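Hello,

Our lab assistant flagged a job as stuck in the queue for most of the afternoon. It eventually completed. Since we weren't sure the result was trustworthy after the delay, we are filing this so someone can double-check. Below is the sequence as submitted and the structure that was eventually returned. Let us know if re-running is recommended.
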Amino acid sequence: MGDRDYAKNVLKLIDPEKVYFGDRVITRNESPYIKTLDLVLADECGVVIVDDTAQVWPDHKRNLLEITKYNYFSDKTRRDVKYSKSYAEEKRDEGRNDGSLGNVLKVIKEVYERFFSGGVEKELDIDSKDVRLLFHDARRPK
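-- returned structure --
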């Protein structure tokens, strides 16, 4: 829910050549009160949402993987949130295999592998491929 300027600055750092995101960014300027997949040009059955605020996705909870807040870049423009130092300001970060992003990466990798490996056809009817089914299954303790 960052504003467009904040999103552009983050994208300059993480995708400077616009290979992954291009200009496809949705900010609070486009959807100020709730987040919705209605603004995304993709079928819901192929989308996993990663967010730290579940209540802003009232219509897409099945697609949501809720994580703890990850604050790498500072955003001093947000008046609605108490300011705390970002990871970048503290010159530290989470580990690759632990913390919010590490845990999310494990789930997304498992979902991706099961969705695209050919195993999905065995688990699901090919016409009913839905990443949400795999996504929720991947989060269950083994």
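-- support follow-up --
The delay was a queue issue, not a problem with the job. The result is valid. The longest strand covers residues 49-51. The beta strands are 49-51, 64-66.
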